[in-house]
Every structure is written in structure tokens, then in C-alpha cells.
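Before a colleague's protein record goes any further, I have to sign it off. Thanks in advance; the entry in question is below:
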Amino acid sequence: MGVDPGLTRCGLSLIEGGSGRSVTALDVDVVRTPADMDLAQRLLRISEAAEYWLDTHKPTVVAIERVFAQHNVRTAMGTAQAGGVIALAAARRGIDVCFHTPSEVKAAVTGNGSADKAQVTAMVMRILGLQVAPTPADAADALALGICHCWRAPMIARMAQAEAMAAAQKRKYELRLAEERKARATAAKKLERAKREAGAR
């Protein structure tokens, strides 16, 4: 489930990954909330829509765009809040959540981390074999999030596995060092005791 978070428009998509880089769009929608509505009510509306999607489609993972940097702090906060309520809804259902930066999504879909929205939309259409561009742009962005995760998931899994192996090796090394220090300390105590006993004689 790809999510392009936002208060005014929040894009939701469902992408199914196949063999290789094969992906299929199963559903896409944009949740809208009016700017004059109370913030809590806007977040509630987004949360309810996301929960309906989660309960209906039962995705294996939710990919959300990470708020990386925006000049408009108010917009960035609203985007982060919308993403947060969806991440929480997924976590409560035991569904994994993964965040991708806008540049990661653009690079995965277009090969250019600085691509504009038109380029992203064009590549989403080509990848999914769509005849009509998804509108508004938030729908295309949500689809791009889903595509990005499907393609990046194997790499993410390999990185997580490598990190787990490195952590296990580190623990094993630290345990061996601790055992060696303990053995040296025990040997030193035995030697000191032997010296004292020899002196006493």
C-alpha cells in the first residue's frame, strides 16, 4: 500500500509485485479534507479512510513518503501528521511500515532523484501500462510509492539481513573478548596466589 500523505489530499494506492520488476496497480484513491475543517477532524477522516483500506485490502506492507525537507513548515507538519496517523493504523494491525524519501521514490521510478511530477506521472503510466494519467498528482505519487517499495524491498531485506549478521558477529566478538579477559584475570590471580604461597614457604 503506497501512501502519499497530505492533509488537503492524501493519496492511497495498492500495488502488487510480481516476478522481477513486474508490478500491477490494484486500486488508487485520494482522500480530501477541506482546509477550513478542524485539524483533528481532518486527521480523523484520513485515518478512517486508511483504516478502511487496511481492513479491506490487507496489504503486507505500507510504504509512506517520508517528510524530508520542505520550505513550508506548516505544510510539512501537516504531511507528517497525516503520515503518522496512517503509520499508527498500520502498526496497530501488525502491518510493517516503511518510509521512502521523495528522491528515493523518484530515483526508483524514473532513474532521476530530481525528476518533476510530470516525469514521475509519465513513468508511472508506462510502468503500470495505464492509458490515462492518474489524477490528481497525489494519486500518481501514491502509485509511485508502491512501485518504489516493490522494487526496493529485496534490497532493504538484504541490508537488514546484513546488519543483523554484523550485529551477531559483533556480539560474538565482544563475548570472546570478555571470556579472554576473564581467563587472563583468573590466570593472574592463580599466579599471584602461587607466588604468595611460595614466599610463605
